[in-house]
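Predict structure. Chain length: 158.
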Amino acid sequence: MRIMTSLFLRNPLLVSLSAMVTISLLVGLIGQGNGEPPARPTAEVTNELLIGFRDSTDGSVTVTLGNTDRELATFKSGEGFFLRGAVRTLVNERRIRSIESQSSFKLEKLQTGSLLLSDPITGYWLALDAFGRDNVGVFQKILDQSAEYQSFSVVANK
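Prediction complete.
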């Protein structure tokens, strides 16, 4: 046994591999969580908008005002990769929970200037700022576009 321990400690490759396996197992076990969404930022919401997404047969995605037919933006096939990925993440959270809903998602601007994309049904959210200025810009344009519709109450400026 002493010889095995001595060989193990003198071989940096074995020590490194053992450490990586141990860390991976710990991260995997700790990362399981309790199935609850992470805590939301505490900053006040200054602007919010309900947005829906409609897939077309040609591969395009249309962003709509809530569950209405008012179009805010359209991304052709091969465009809007970040938007598609962000929405797919929230849709997958619904799928995991067996929620079959076409309900809208919420785009929120915080007092700090940060943008969140959240799912009112599951409570999960994405801090869009974490993905860079260009990606936030896609959602900021949608929020700006919604300002053209003054006659609806979906956007709340507080």
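Summary: Residues 1-33 form one domain.
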